[in-house]
Design brief:
It is built from 15 helices and 11 strands. By secondary structure, the protein is of the alpha/beta class. It has a single domain, classed as Bacterial extracellular solute-binding protein, family 7 (D-Maltodextrin-Binding Protein, domain 2, 3-Layer(aba) Sandwich). The chain has a 6-stranded mixed sheet. β6, α8 and β7 form a beta-alpha-beta unit. The structure holds succinic acid (SIN). Succinic acid (SIN) binds next to loops. Belongs to the bacterial solute-binding protein 7 family. One of its GO terms (cellular component) is outer membrane-bounded periplasmic space. This is C4-dicarboxylate ABC transporter.
Length: 345
């Protein structure tokens, strides 16, 4: 009997102690977590990967988009921007998006031709007179058709961003007439049109990712390359080249996108917030990108001894003459509506 009473007293003392001083493993989770911690758990993080420098139209637009989203969502959505191929190079980024390793990318049109040939329209030299014409095409039927082609690939197109027209550079020779290109080795983006363009100029084109251009030019693996002023300036390519021709021959634009399944997994209010922030950012970037390229051209001229040549009308006609087989081939290969719409302008 005495043993029973002692045991009962011990058990009741034990439970009284536990009630008064519960050990940490019995605490329910929420006792430890403050609001801030719970908020972080629910936060949607969107990693936005791209390959160019921050002081470029794409780099600045990505940062602006992140800022607008982060502020407007009151911390509920956080866009983190990774520039300069620190996460993925341009050859890896679409796969990374599909694997959900990143949630947003903005590849150049030339790099999407594997998905649909119609993106090659913008690589055809001298197809568009100015950025206004490109903008009208992208806001019209051509843009709709390209967005639809992304959807077929389970990609959600969010916007088209602008980086303007490309210029030619070389370490060997001033590039004025088609024969000046003969035998020179050029780095190119992965585009059949760009490859054929250089083939027609009797040059030697080789595909290389953007994050290798500086190093390859430095090692003299290439004599030249084509790019927009902002890419030539921000990656200091002009320091490795002696000649630049302002040719404005091919267009460089970007398709800003997410994986469609990831997009569909986002709550409707977040989708709306992202769409609005993207609309605002896109308007801002189209307004500022041309000015940025113009300013950086002046900086290139003042910071280096590169010789800048402005392609004359007569020289442009000679280039166009040389590119005739390219126009003939791709007018047949690209979607008929897209070609007709382009020639209508
Ligand atoms: C880019 O602007 O995204 C890169 C262009 C290039 O590969 O030259």
């Amino acid at each position: 009997m005495r043993i029973f009473i002692v045991t009962a007293l011990f058990v009741s003392a034990f439970f009284t102690y536990i009630l008064l001083f519960p050990p940490s493993f019995l605490h329910s989770e929420h006792v430890y977590r403050d609001d801030e911690q719970r908020g972080l758990d629910e936060q949607i993080v969107i990693n936005f990967s791209h390959v160019v420098a921050e002081n470029t139209p794409k780099g600045l637009a990505a940062q602006k988009f992140a800022k607008v989203v982060n502020e407007r969502s009151d911390g509920k959505v956080k866009v983190e921007v990774f520039s300069n191929s620190v996460l993925y190079s341009d050859t890896e980024e679409v796969d990374a998006l599909r694997r959900n390793d990143v949630q947003m990318i903005a590849p150049s049109f030339s790099k999407l031709a594997d998905l649909n040939e119609d993106w090659l329209l913008f690589d055809l030299p001298f197809m568009f007179k100015d950025e206004g014409e490109v903008e009208a095409a992208l806001n019209g039927q051509i843009g709709k058709s390209l967005q639809a082609s992304l959807k077929k690939e389970n990609l959600k197109g969010l916007a088209f961003w602008n980086n303007g027209f490309k210029q030619m550079t070389s370490s060997q020779k001033k590039l004025a007439v088609p024969d000046d290109f003969k035998g020179q080795r050029f780095r190119i983006m992965p585009s059949e049109v760009i490859k054929k363009q250089f083939d027609l100029l009797d040059a030697k084109p080789t595909i290389a990712p953007f994050n290798r251009v500086y190093e390859s030019l430095e090692k003299q693996e290439f004599d030249g390359q084509e790019n927009t002023i902002s890419n030539i300036y921000s990656k200091r390519l002009y320091m490795l080249q002696r000649y630049m021709t302002i040719s404005n021959h091919g267009y460089l634009g970007y398709a800003v996108m997410m994986d469609e399944s990831y997009w569909n997994s986002l709550p409707p209010d977040v989708q709306l917030l992202l769409s609005n922030a993207m609309e605002e950012t896109t308007a801002w970037m189209w307004e500022h990108s041309k000015g940025m390229n113009d300013q950086q051209l002046e900086k290139i001229k003042s910071e280096s001894s590169i010789q800048v040549h402005y392609l004359t009308e007569q020289e442009r006609d000679k280039w166009k003459q040389r590119f005739k087989p390219l126009y003939t081939e791709f007018q047949k290969r690209l979607t008929k509506d897209i070609v007709e719409e382009t020639y209508k302008k």
